[in-house]
Amino acid sequence: TRVGVVRESNPDERRVALVPKIVPALVKQGVEVVVEPGAGLGALIPDEAYTAAGAVLGDPWSAEVVVKVAPPNDSEIAKLSAGQTLIGFLAPRNADTKIGALKAAGVQAFAVEAIPRISRAQVMDALSSQANVSGYKAVLVAASESTRFFPMLTTAAGTVKPATVLILGVGVAGLQALATAKRLGGRTTGYDVRPEVADQVRSVGAQWLDLGIEAAGEGGYARELTEDEKAQQQLALENAIKGFDVVITTALVPGRPAPRLVTAAAVEGMKPGSVIVDLAGETGGNCELTEPGKTVVKHGVTIASPLNLPATMPEHASELYSKNIQALLELMLKDGALAPDFGDQVLADSCVTRDREAPAAPAAADPA
Ligand code: NAD
């Protein structure tokens, strides 16, 4: 089997789908890895590092399996032909998803977003590996935008109180943000609508903010709140947020616009100089005053909405993503040949261009 590693077409997308470190293991399994010249440059990986690891340079788009990071654009899809397999972030639930075009082209496409959140698939879970990067970097963005220290400082010139940091939405990114803010010396609090998150929040040394609204949905995700619950939540948060120096929001509901957690009134209630980092900008933002992709100051509060934070840490983000891709590839290979078994829940769920009418016997779900 030939696996093609493409050079991402968006210059801001600095990640690469396979780093050289992974190549020897694939080659050992009978895979030929074809790397597009310059594919690793965004992540500071020269072509020679790939060839030294056993890959060849060439056209990745003609390989049996094409691996990518960002969803393909139209001209990239035009380079694919029927029977080829594509693996990457494919934004299957976005309004502008290319799944239809991939289906029409006869491409067998696997969306890493659709990998089930079960223990066995954790090693392939690219949403989680990249959310870890986002959660970490969001805290650094907040610290750098802040006019205040995170840690408590006791100096000859006086004592500085630690920053109070509130994380709204404590999934993978939120949990990493709590841990990172704590390491920087902040006083951390976490909030979520899934009650089982409380213990995880406490386990990273943070306080749990309980607003009495529970909204656990399917597959370990949250469900969308009812209109009444939304109003109740916004009001409760408006009161809670006032006391915080830093608010980082990561709340998402699969396939829905980002929940509006922070109203304009809540921003107005914060102390000038406070910072909000909104990680939900891509789906509209968790804060009413967020401008996706921008950093703005409203009522004296800095509101940053960075998009694609994992691409700002391309080295480690690519390394983690490569491990996810390697594990998914290995699940599809038998004696070096591509032979995906769609009786496997991970492959059945993540293959987004197959007809779903007759799924094979589902594996037992074990959400962790
Ligand atoms: P996500 O990115 O979909 O959402 C982020 C967080 O926002 C979630 O915790 C969600 O509950 C929260 N949220 C949504 N609406 C909200 C609202 N109105 N108010 C407050 N918070 C709100 O979540 P994720 O990081 O992808 O994690 C989803 C789930 O998958 C979690 O249960 C996580 O623990 C689980 N998970 C399991 C595994 C595994 O075992 N294999 C791996 C990774 C993640």
Automatic annotation (TrEMBL):
The keyword Ribosomal protein does not apply. One of its GO terms (biological process) is NADPH regeneration. SMART domains: AlaDh_PNT_C, AlaDh_PNT_N. Keywords: NAD, NADP, Nucleotide-binding, Oxidoreductase, Translocase. GO terms for cellular component: plasma membrane. Residues 4-134 form the Alanine dehydrogenase/pyridine nucleotide transhydrogenase N-terminal domain. The transhydrogenation between NADH and NADP is coupled to respiration and ATP hydrolysis and functions as a proton pump across the membrane. This is NAD(P) transhydrogenase subunit alpha part 1.
